[in-house]
Amino acid sequence: QVQLVESGGGLVQAGGSLGLSCAFSGSFFSLYVMAWYRQAPGKQRELVASITRGGTTNYIDSVKGRFTISRDNAKSKVYLRMNSLKPEDAAVYYCNGQLAQRYWGKGTLVTDAS
């Protein structure tokens, strides 16, 4: 059974940076498409960034140039580096892994301090 555990959320000022991590437990991590989603209060969950098994990345327009998704297959982890944060980036961030099934973490909260 796959489990995903996010960490790294916190309080950030506009313009600040934060790094999120997602630890994957289970088998065949390197085969999974991994992604970060977020959900702000009153809004639908949205895909922020994804990375394929081969390392191809994709981002929503609002975070391009500011966020970077990466993965370490040796450590079974996926990361999201967030720079130049904006108040609208505040949300619960969820790690997602998909192969034959889709798995979700419980989320980590990024809060705007401004």
Features of the shown structure:
114 residues; 4-stranded antiparallel sheet; single chain; 7-stranded mixed sheet; globular; mainly beta
In short:
The protein is an all-beta fold. It is built from no helices and 11 strands. Strands 2, 4, 5, 6, 9, 10 and 11 form a 7-stranded mixed β-sheet that branches. Strands 1-3-8-7 form a 4-stranded antiparallel β-sheet, with no helix packed on it.
Explained architecture:
- With about 110 residues, the protein is mainly beta.
- Helices cover about 0% and strands about 55% of the residues.
- The strands form two sheets. Strands 2, 4, 5, 6, 9, 10 and 11 form a seven-stranded mixed β-sheet that branches. A four-stranded antiparallel β-sheet has the order 1-3-8-7, with no helix packed on it.
- The radius of gyration is 13 Å and the shape is globular.
- The N and C termini lie far apart (about 40 Å).
Distance between the termini: 40 Å
* Mean pLDDT, all residues: 96
What are the secondary-structure elements, in order, as H or E?
Answer: EEEEEEEEEEE
Put simply, the count of helices is 0
DSSP E strands, number: 11
**What is the approximate shape?**
globular
Portion of residues in beta strands equals over 45%
Largest sheet: 7 strands, mixed
Q: In which range does the helix fraction lie?
A: under 10%
**C-alpha Rg, in Å?**
13 Å
Residue windows where pLDDT falls under 50 for at least 5 positions: none
Which structural class best describes the helix and strand composition? mainly beta
